[in-house]
Amino acid sequence: MKITNENVVQQIIIKNEKTIPYLINNYEGLLNSIIRRYLNGNQQDIEECFADVLTSIWFHIDSFDSTKNEFKQWIAAIAKYRAIDYMRKTEKTKQFGSNFGFDEHVYTQTTVEPSGVDLSTILNTLNATERAIFEKYYLEGVPSNEIAKEYKVKQSWVHNKLSRGRKKLKTILVKGEV
Description:
Helix content: 55-70%
């Protein structure tokens, strides 16, 4: 069956793999222009984000509602929010890098005392659900709305868990209990 603008949604629903090249050929320019607007020329991030957008379209087609908007608008919104997520992720990485910058004095010392605190030890202080949510949101960069869908809860529940987890971790780090 030939894929057209009229049947593209149905073809994605039935997981016709020929739909992917159709999406690339017909919507790559639109999606890439949206992604580039947010990711400012980092080609690797742009390509990863584009692939992530295609994956999101493929696996979340069931959330498309033709009564609310057109397919083109829907995929444009996905591209926008994925690009924003990537932008936030790179900003967090930059902040992390600047907080832990290179110090020549420390490097030239013959012995360097490790802090003794690693991320897994800190996260082990959270319960299993809080830890999983923390890792998905902060380490993997999964948006809170997707985490909420996975746990079949409201997005506010996810933000509540993240907030409580941050408070617990802050208390533990300030007291030096780790």
